Amino acid sequence: MSLLVDKWRPKTLDELAYHEDLSERLRALAQTDFPHTLFYGPSGAGKKTRIMCTLKELFGPGVDKLRIEQRTFLTPSKRKIEINVVQSNYHIELTPSDAGNWDRSVVQEVLKDIAQTQQVDLNAKKRFKVVIINEADLLSRDAQSALRRTMEKFTANLRVILCANSTSRIIGPIRSRCLLLRVGAPSEAEICKVLAYAAKKERLSLPEHVATLLARISQGNLRRALLSLEALHTQDPTFKTVSASHSLLTGTKQSASDLDSVPRPDWEKYAGRAAEKILGEQTPERLLEVRGMLYELLVHCIPAPLIISTISKRLMDRVDEEIKADVVYWAAFYEHRLRLGSKPIFHLEAFCARIMSVYKQHLLGIGFD
Amino acid sequence: MPSPPPKRVKKELKPLSSRPQFAISSFAPKLPSSSMPPPPVPSTSSKGKGKAKQVEVLDLTEDEVEEQDPEALWVDRFAPSTRDELGVHPKKVNDVAGWLDEAYNPRLSKYRRLLVMSGPSGAAKTATLKILADELDIDILEYRNGSNFTFASDDSRDSMVEQFTSFLARAGMAPALELGPDPSLPPPPSSSSSSSSAPLPPSTRSKRLILLEDLPNTSHYPTKLALRSALQQYLASPRVTCPLVVIVSEALARPGVGLDAESTSGEGRRGESVDARSVCGIDVLQAPGCREISFNPIAVTIMKKALTKILDRVYASKSSGGLLPTSARPAVGTLEIIIAHSNGDIRSALMSLQFLASNPELAAATGATLLGAGKETGKGKKRKSDGEVKGAASKAQVKKLLQYVTARESSLFIFHALGKVLYSKRWGESADDDKKDLDRQGIQQEQEIDRLPKHLRKEWTRKPSKVNPDVLFAEAPIDSDVFLSYMHHNYTAFTNDIDECLGIVEGMSTADGLMRLEGEDWLQRVSLTSQYSFNTAVRSTLLHLPSPVPRRKQVLRKSALWEKMRETRANEEGIEEMYRKKDGIALVPPFEFEAGEEDGGGWRGGGGSQRSRRSLTTELVPYVGVIRQKGTKGALSFFTELATFPPVPSSHYQATITGETLGEKDVDEDEDLAVVKEEPEDEEMAEAEAEVLKLEEEEEAVGELLWDPEDDIEDD
Amino acid sequence: MAPSSTTQKVDAFAMMRQAAAGKKPSAAAEASPPKASGSGSSSKAANSGGPAVAPMFKPKGSGLGAGPKHVADVENQPWVEKYRPKNLEEVSAQDHTVQVLKKTLGNSNLPHMLFYGPPGTGKTSTILALCKQLFGPELFRSRVLELNASDERGISVVRDKIKNFAKTTVTTNHDPNYPAPPFKIIILDEADSMTQDAQSALRRIMESHSRITRFCLICNYVTRIIEPITSRCSKFRFKPLDVSSTELRLKEICLKENVDCPDDALRALIKTSDGDLRRAITYLQSASRLHSATTPPTPLTAISVQEIGGVVPDGVMAELAKALGVESGAEDVEMGEPSGRTVGAFETVQRAVEKVVREGYSATQVLTQLHDLLILDPLVSPRAKAKIALTLGETDKCLTDGADEELQLLNACAKIRKAVSEAA
């Protein structure tokens, strides 16, 4: 009972449905001595799928034999941290940022281990092993410079593949040592194509407008598109509930109910409702109510920055042109604050209070500036 | 027990201060200053012992007391020596006694291995144990670690715990007689009550217990873990021969300090107060062999009785052996102030009392005046006395002095501090209040404020505030981020519109932004940043609250923030758990399952890659919750739970602040908030005297409420 | 520190000689471990100190120094290392500095030095070339210690490693072909990331060991070096490379490596690397790798160079600029959509930003390029430019702190748009 998104995931470079030129490059690179690479691009664009396809191209089917392990590392202060590690005979994949402040120790230890063990498999197509580092942009600067050192030192039997959402937070020395490969989000048409492919494989009849709608709300995130297809299908096997004249498809002004009637995850709808609450009334009591909703979102493990950006997107859809810029300004402002502080609720609540205040002023016709 | 290898003995010859010491109580080391009043020490026997051992005399009689060195601390001189003298509720004493009794019952001893005595400092925990041990003829074997003052590296700290562990192993599992006293200790002094005189056998008593009072540094995470596992081992070990008693002096939560750099995963984020649970861990406390008996602070009435008794002895007339002239005796009023300030800590109260007495000038002043007051005035009764005038003059002095002496104890309770900020009282809001607050303690007096520049005046001019944030910061009982979370939880009820809310919550957001604990040196910065952030938040709250703050019978409640953070983490951990299961949302998405092979060591048909945490919580879990909604159970129902949200209330819903009301131990002396107060009965009271009495009354009220958590202090 | 005993000194020499001979301290050496940690006198401490020294040497030094350690992979060797100047003559562009330094070759006296300037301007190359010319390959290992300060920047490194190296005396036997002056050189790369404490410790060491040791500090920002140190050093400023010398160098490498690099690709390379020669060479190598991997190999293109450099293509930038109300250069007109759309201005910005973000371009890069685009645009008023600069700065700070890229970019763009439209 694996998920659609896993079931029909491409396994080789040939199966990839879009960014053909990139696949072509990867194929070419795999023939040579593969360089250190940095895959970057938005979430759900297919970075990891491409990485795994590339590995297959490099090493053949052997990479499919995976082991999942929990590795324990000892921090300098003798504290144990556990990191999930996925590995085959040819590669190892880890997410050092899971270790928080101790990512540096993790990077150093794993890479040293790998670098010092020669490829044991004599039939291996390459002499080196590959280390895949997820969420490389979340690594601390310390961990990044440790990584840089190791990359320099052990080029002979080690290749590093970094996976990141953006290069902004990757330090220059690493960027300059890696081949940068950008994986842009698929276009709407490309997502539709993939959705149609998956639907065909599953023998579902997926109306075109539904596919388009799913593609649109996925905002270029293919994983989401596929997941929402499956979710929608479970709830509504014939896709009757999605009308072809949905405002998201026709491009007319969106109403709150229209925004809610698309298959989104519950938390997004809930955040949307919080946004509506903000616009509905601007009083301390309402703020208190919104606080309750914010807490609810946090308890459901939704990252606070995502809460702000989801609420602000909804607000931007709903407020007048004049204060849209204000909304985005304050969203950016408090989202930044979130990164500085340790109590997300303060900043989320401050954001909501701010928007309430701005909106109230706007309604009163005073204008904010 | 295998006697320690020679090498070990050699090691123990290091300076006393640098290693743990253990000994039978009859030659017990001098108690650390943080423990309960140790029994009185005859001056003769303490000579020449250096910092090391002194004799505990557990059954001192009153006659002996009077022969004591007048310089000795009263805490030592007037320590309780019998059950009756203990200021502890008899039930507690019986509990402990019963436990001790059962611990030596061969049939029950398996279930009476570890006794955790918890309670605030000065609640007579140690004294209770010592007295009972003496009554029941039990030897106390105490563990002390002496190296608190060396800057221990990680290694040596760890080894301290190791030393403790090995001490436990040796002491607990060894038959009584083989355990000789530490060879490096000076020979035991003889004393009237100590039944032993030679190193071996150390004691004629057959029953022993191990006392652990000087806990290793449990704010150091590895140490704490080691301690817990040592305790667990002790509980589990089949060879244990004597019970272990751990005494935990509870302290208030100071999360900012306890916050470890490693806090992302652990208890660090939560307020790490020192209590039985945080020290021993829940596993230990719930073990069948463990029992926790928690002590309450000493009740006011009992403490008063005890102190009065002591005063009676001290200020007895010369003929009957009194140390000080009766005329210098502090008044009942003074005594009550001291008791109220002590928060139920009898040791602290006794210290204050002695200090007061040691100041002859003051003692004279108070003695002359307040003595009269104390002797002649019943509660609220009118009286006329010679000392009256003088009393008025010195009363302020006593008050002031007591502030210094007991400063630490008189810190504000969180409830009170919160009320101060959230009611944001200002001068000129109400004439009645102003009159009351004039020259009142804890109120910032009216002062000239520089006028704001013209362009700021309209928006920002406020009446002078009665709250001084700097003082508040110093007195606040908890760290600023806890304080802020409480303020955050409660502020909306005190505002009238959204802009006020904005100003306040914006201040908190700024403050939190300042408190980032990151980088190598965060520990050095934390004290400074917390001060800044406290001030930022408190001042902006004071500034933005309406003036006057509306009174709507607001009830202050406990912050939900910590609980929500805990829930969040629990859910995160729940998701983490799922990593290891194969319910279709594993860490690595398997592509093809080959029938029958799923249960093999590895994932077949793969090429999978790790899912990021973010995608897990925001995409996979929410969708999988929907996709697998039908017939879910076990792990998946957890996902469904995580994926779905409660319905949003209709737009007419009026939110209110929820949560446990603040109250327990969190008493306020501000009449506006909660405390029900009786007006002095007599209207004709002289003004100066009225104030003295009012003070007494107030403190009395506080005191009584303090020890009675059941009291509903929320009533307005 | 207490002076080491005689035997320990001998050990240190042994180690140096071995190193000079191009061998790593072998098992034999470990039996009588080299005294490297300085403080510990037990054999255990020395043992752990020994191997720990090795990583302290930057690997790139190994290519220049005595024995090549793991350059077996010549094919794969970064061109940056391969084409590092072998002597001062070969150093690109920094004529003034090179001139001064050449003089020191003759008179065997050298001051403490501080090299500063933007990355990729040849600071490390210059000092390595100088050292090589001073000591020759034989003595290089024993006379030059290269430390990367950001590696281990704690005070303990300064105390132990540097101090230990600084206090060993110099040997006299040397290759007569090199001047080999009687001192050692310690190169501290990235010195500006050393902590203040480490820097002050360094200062004292500089004083007490100046008889036989010269320091060369390398940093990007001279202001981050404490005053007492800068005043003890001769300062050399390294300027960003000019276009012609970068071009010259790149062409030379293309020739040697057989890379087909047309002029437009070369121009893109120089523009993308922005005066940083190391970056230019790295990009060149990556690009050539990509293009030679295809069959048959294709000549480099400007697009692939930009892609490798993570640069946002001009077309995308022009479109974004247009959404912000700035019509840049005429050549991109065909990229734009017909104007006069009905959606609000804010939404236009929103769509444009969304598009850029979805393509995966990094927000910092977009901002940098927006800066280049807008600040030079003659049609944008100075006032608007000032506001834009402010916005860009603030946004950059937020991004550095890890804020959400899309929100920040959208906010910056909305503000820029406002600034531009207000001034118009």
UniProtKB/TrEMBL annotation, chain A:
It comes from the Eukaryota. GO terms for cellular component: Ctf18 RFC-like complex; DNA replication factor C complex; Elg1 RFC-like complex; Rad17 RFC-like complex. The keyword Transcription does not apply. GO terms for biological process: DNA repair; DNA strand elongation involved in DNA replication. Keywords: DNA replication, Hydrolase, Nucleus. GO terms for molecular function: DNA binding; DNA clamp loader activity; hydrolase activity. Gene3D superfamilies: 1.10.8.60, 1.20.272.10, P-loop containing nucleotide triphosphate hydrolases (3.40.50.300). Residues 33-187 form the AAA+ ATPase domain. SMART domains: AAA (SM00382). CDD domains: AAA. Belongs to the activator 1 small subunits family. This is Replication factor C subunit 5. It comes from Leucosporidium creatinivorum.
UniProtKB/TrEMBL annotation, chain B:
The keyword DNA damage applies. Transmembrane segments: none annotated. It is found in: Nucleus. GO terms for biological process: DNA damage checkpoint signaling; DNA repair; mitotic DNA replication checkpoint signaling. Residues 59-69 have a biased composition (Acidic residues). Residues 678-705 form a coiled coil. Its main location: nucleus. GO terms for cellular component: nucleus. Residues 1-69, 177-203 are annotated as: Disordered. Pfam families: Rad17 (PF03215). It comes from the Eukaryota. Keywords: ATP-binding, Cell cycle, Coiled coil, DNA damage, Nucleotide-binding, Nucleus. This is Rad17 cell cycle checkpoint protein-domain-containing protein. It comes from Leucosporidium creatinivorum.
Automatic annotation (TrEMBL), chain C:
This is Replication factor C subunit 2. Keywords: ATP-binding, DNA replication, Nucleotide-binding, Nucleus. The lineage of its organism: Eukaryota, Fungi, Dikarya, Basidiomycota, Pucciniomycotina. The keyword Transferase does not apply. InterPro entries: AAA+_ATPase, ATPase_AAA_core, DNA_pol3_clamp-load_cplx_C, DNA_Rep/Repair_Clamp_Loader, P-loop_NTPase, Rep_factorC_C, RFC_lid. One of its GO terms (molecular function) is ATP hydrolysis activity. One of its GO terms (biological process) is DNA strand elongation involved in DNA replication. Residues 109-244 form the AAA+ ATPase domain. Belongs to the activator 1 small subunits family. Pfam families: AAA, RCF1-5-like_lid, Rep_fac_C. GO terms for cellular component: DNA replication factor C complex; Elg1 RFC-like complex; nucleus. Gene3D superfamilies: 1.10.8.60, 1.20.272.10, P-loop containing nucleotide triphosphate hydrolases. Residues 1-70 are annotated as: Disordered. It is found in: Nucleus. Residues 19-52 have a biased composition (Low complexity).
